[in-house]
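Work Package 4 report. The design task specified in the project plan requires that, given a folded chain encoded as structure tokens, an amino acid be chosen for each position. We show below one input record used in the internal validation round.
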């Protein structure tokens, strides 16, 4: 553990062209979404919760640009209430979804599974985003006694079922408090957002702009 480098730039190929893309941070209330945003904005901040701002519950959504290596990410951190309103243009106008689940509260996993599957179903039905990747992050792993059991969480969420339905989906353990796992999670995002997703997203965006 430790602050360590949080940017995947250290490992990425120098010739990797810079990307600009949008990420939706979704998941149940209190799952740790805003803390992930805060950690990504402060990768070099000392570890431990007092070093990160204690977030107030998010109302509506927060949007922040965060440099990630040579790339620029716009993160959309949605409250649970806002997620329940899929009419929000900003919600869908992203390249990739990060779905946060509190790994230290196993009692929330059945509800999180329902929400994850419901999200995947909504994405599947929307032709402009139906191929978009989803990264599930098991958050607050610093609160566990030992490493997170991602196999067990994968079974509980039936990740295999989503893979069988064609979803590009990953599962990573992270702690916003200690920064553990954050680099691997962002590496997954960068590796799985393909040029096709970006092109498709940009075409949708310009179609929306023309319409407006
Ligand atoms: N120990 C620990 N606590 C965390 C971590 N991430 C978040 N928390 C705590 O969990 C609580 C909820 O965190 P938030 O980041 O506000 O969660 P959220 O998903 O944005 O919550 P809403 O905006 O209300 O939906 C806060 O008390 C955080 O300090 C973590 O990595 N480790
Ligand atoms: Mg929040």
């Amino acid at each position: 553990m430790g602050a360590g480098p949080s940017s995947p730039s250290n490992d990425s190929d120098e010739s990797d062209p810079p990307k600009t893309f949008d990420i939706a941070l979704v998941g149940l209330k209190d799952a740790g979404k805003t803390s992930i945003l805060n950690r990504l904005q402060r990768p070099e901040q000392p570890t431990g919760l007092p070093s990160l701002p204690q977030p107030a519950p998010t109302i509506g959504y927060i949007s922040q640009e965060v440099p990630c290596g040579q790339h620029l990410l716009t993160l959309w951190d949605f409250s649970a209430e806002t997620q329940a309103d899929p009419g929000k243009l900003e919600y869908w106008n992203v390249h990739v979804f990060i779905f946060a689940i509190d790994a230290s509260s196993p009692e929330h996993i059945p509800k999180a599974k329902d929400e994850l599957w419901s999200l995947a179903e909504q994405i599947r039905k929307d032709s402009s985003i139906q191929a978009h990747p989803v990264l599930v992050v098991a958050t607050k792993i610093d609160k566990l006694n030992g490493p997170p059991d991602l196999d067990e969480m994968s079974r509980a969420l039936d990740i295999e079922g989503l893979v069988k339905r064609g979803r590009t989906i990953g599962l990573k353990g992270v702690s916003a408090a200690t920064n553990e796992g954050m680099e691997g999670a962002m590496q997954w995002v960068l590796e799985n957002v393909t040029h096709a997703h970006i092109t498709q997203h940009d075409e949708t965006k310009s179609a929306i702009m023309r319409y407006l």
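The CA atoms of residues 97 and 134 lie 5 Å apart. Validation will be extended to a larger panel in the next phase.
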